[in-house]
Amino acid sequence: MFLYFSGTGNSAWAARGLAEATGDRAVDVTGPGLVSAPDVTSEERVGLVFPIYTWGVPEPVLALAARLDPPEPAFAFAVCTYGSEAGNALDALGRAFRLDGAYGIPMPNNYVMGSELESRAAALEKLSRARESVRAIAEEVLSRHGGRHVDVGPLAGLKSGVVNRAFNKFGRGTSSFAVTSACDGCGLCARRCPAGAIKMDGGRPVWSSPSCLMCSRCINGCPRSAIQYGKGAERRGRYSLDALLAELGD
Ligand SMILES: Cc1cc2nc3c(=O)[nH]c(=O)nc-3n(C[C@H](O)[C@H](O)[C@H](O)COP(=O)(O)O)c2cc1C
Ligand code: SF4
Ligand code: SF4
Fold first, then answer.
1. Looking at ligand 3, which atom is closest to the CA of residue 215?
2. Quick check: helix, strand or coil at residue 81?
3. Nearest ligand to the C-alpha of residue 8?
4. What is the pLDDT of residues 54-78, one digit of tens each?
5. Backbone phi, then psi, for 102, in 5-degree steps?
């Protein structure tokens, strides 16, 4: 079983590809309302698939991991997707969840609130390499090959320590989100926010929680590109995995 958390689809795409290649199933655990952890007692393999957020593991994934108890014969593992590096994020996960194996897949960056997106050509190149990574990881998982196969990057201790803690404390505020006049009130952002942080009020979205997961689903997924986050996001494009996949003919 591949349990996936995904803001903008990269990790969902990887989890579905892995499930297909291993004859297993992918289960979406993104979003509010996940009351009980899925039953994994009779699973042959239990994998968590998720994005890296500021050299850390998204909080809901850590919380779920702590509630899962894969049976001893099952192969328990993690697959993280990231733009370039995960730091020591997997160490924190390993304290909550048995990690017989850990794998990383570089994928296009989606963090449009805080960083530049790569060029279309670079994103397409990453995505076609990611297809190969999915196939290779599926083989590893089927043959129960363990070990860590993750791009850690330089200064990992600092980034996954102090910097990640600062992000979780100060970098997840919603006060910089704003909606332009292009919004038509469709409500998609509110319905799809995995943190339940957006409410519709008088036909306009309002960020009703002071902080959120920063998954970037709302800002990248708005069909009218009506969501902004400070000045930086105004001049950046928006990330769409579907558009890239269409260009690759998938
Ligand atoms: C808040 C945030 C922080 C991120 N931090 C990192 C990071 O530390 N390292 C990295 O390589 N990519 C980082 N990224 C990029 C994502 O990990 C990457 O695009 C991932 O594949 C997105 O997966 P998803 O579409 O399943 O949400 C970050 C993205 C977001 C939204
Ligand atoms: S998804 Fe975009 S257009 Fe729809 S309500 Fe949200 S901000 Fe407005
Ligand atoms: S408000 Fe936007 S960025 Fe924050 S958790 Fe919800 S969808 Fe993700």
1. 8
2. strand
3. 1
4. 999 999 999 999 999 899 899 999 9
5. -145, 130
